[in-house]
Amino acid sequence: MPIEYSAVHRQVECCPTSRNTNQMIVRFSLYSIFKNLRFADPFLLLYLLHLGSSFTSIGLLLGFGAITTAVLEVPSGLLADQWGRIKSVATCFLAYASSFSLFPFATTADDGERLIWLYAAIACFSLGEALRTGGHKAIMLDWLDSEGRTGEATRMIGTTRAWSKGTTGVSALGGGLILFLTGGYAWLFYLSAVAAVGGFVLMLTYPASLEGEKTRERRSAKKAVESTGLLERFRKSESDPGFGRLFVESVTFESQSKLMLKYYLQPWLKLTLEAGGLAIIGPGALSIGAYEFVRNSVGGAGALASTWLERIAGGQGAALTLAYRGALMISLVLILCLWVDWLVIGLILMLGLTVLQNGRRPIFVSAFNEVMDKSARATTLSIESQARSVVTAVLLPITGWLADQFGLIAVCLALTGVLLSGLVMGRMCQPTPQSTPTGSP
Predict the structure, then answer these.
(1) Which whole-number Å values give the CA distances from 115 to 58, 89, 100, 102, 358, in the listed order?
(2) CA pair distance 240, 387, nearest whole angstrom
């Protein structure tokens, strides 16, 4: 009888833990869904071009957004570590909702007012990005530590990233349909705002225990915790083996991938559709939505395959290097595609770049987690994100001017040059640690 009672008692004790674990995984996945239900994203550049903006003016606008994010990035990371990561990420969704609500006003405004609406919308979005970056990944890594599952970081981040890309693909497909049916861009922004409000509500359901280490210390010790200086935190992490190379290669890889896939892919699609005689507001919208659905679907597959890539490459460092070199090769071939007008082949290659970018990111976060101060995860990840934002902010106006003057081929040449320089600078830093391959004893 005591044995039977003990077995039943263990079942009762373990069920709540299992249930809570499943609930957190569901929450992490829902976060990815709400964050990426941005119906306007695949059409933002096309919307700005529709308003009559040049690539240079678009570069200045988006560069302003990137530099605003960069300026706010680390203060927001410190805020997340000290005030609470859940509060910070919840607030970011309100900033997103405000941004998407402002964009449509630019459609009917005159030239002077249009700039005010656009810059206000971009400022709100940049605030949201600064509040979000690093915060949610820090929440996930913290939760994995508390569950004794730190070794599953690559798989967990890859899974949630797959949800992100899948949602982005569905929202792109839906966005294309909305643009086709309504004949205008406004509803793309309004529905994106609704999804952002949903993300805010979701974050309110997260347990307070995941606010961050500093928050838990304040609650348990009933006293304020002195914050470590930002430079001291960064130097503490920088002293760890592999930090420099991981940092430099991530900044160059992610910034150049974002410039190509988020900003200059849409003009590439526009060129391809116009060559085929398809209007953007019309059948072209459906084509863009379908392409983005496929691209994000393969991106999700790439995220899920991150542990496989890590295993076959022989470790995290080797996998990161393989992905970086693959992206550099694709970038070089994209230049050739523009030179000989192989636009469709270029779009296929960008699917491959999407796979590499999404497969590489979970491996990087897992490797970076091993060399950073655990109590300042949000801050450290924000520093990395800030550096990416600065590089993007500097290059957006430059590449915009290059696009206006010489076309997309000049943009591809510039981005390839930055990727190559990042590879060289990364080799000048400490060697990336070769982590034990996934599945090894």
Answers:
(1) 11, 28, 15, 12, 34
(2) 19
Decide: 172 and 192 in contact? Cβ < 8 Å: no
- Domains of the chain by residue range: 26-216+227-428
Q: What does the block give as tokens for 59? A: 């570069």
The Cα 264–Cα 43 span in angstroms is 11
**Architecture of the domain defined by 26-216+227-428:** Up-down Bundle (1.20)
- Claim: this prediction has a pTM higher than 0.90: no
The string of pLDDT tens digits covering residues 409-436 is: 999 999 999 999 988 887 777 554 444 4
Give the pair of three-digit tokens for residue 136: 């949610």
Question: Quick one: three-class SS letters along the chain?
Answer: CHHHHHHHHHHHHHHHHHHHHHHHHHHHHHHHHHHHCCCCHHHHHHHHHHCCCCHHHHHHHHHHHHHHHHHHHHHHHHHHHHHCHHHHHHHHHHHHHHHHHHCCHHHHCCHHHHHHHHHHHHHHHHHHHHHHCCHHHHHHHHHHHHCCCHHHHHHHHHHHHHHHHHHHHHHHHHHHHHHHHHCCCHHHHHHHHHHHHHHHHHHCCCCHHHCCHHHHHHHHHCCCCCCCCHHHHHHHHHCCCCHHHHHHHHHHHHHHHHHHHHHHHHHHHHHHHHHCCCCHHHHHHHHHHHHHHHHHHHHHHHHHCHHHHHHHHCCHHHHHHHHHHHHHHHHHHHHHHHHCCCHHHHHHHHHHHHHHHHHHHHHHHHHHHCCCCHHHHHHHHHHHHHHHHHHHHHHHHHHHHHHHHHCHHHHHHHHHHHHHHHHHHHHHCCCCCCCCCCCCC
CB atoms closer than 10 angstroms to residue 192: 22
Tokens of 310: 């890590």
Distances from the Cα of 237 to the Cαs of 162, 172, 240, 383, in angstroms? 29, 38, 6, 11
The per-residue pLDDT for range 97-152, each reduced to its tens digit, is 999 999 999 998 888 899 999 999 999 999 998 888 666 777 877 777 777 776 77
Provide the residue type at 47 as one letter.
Y
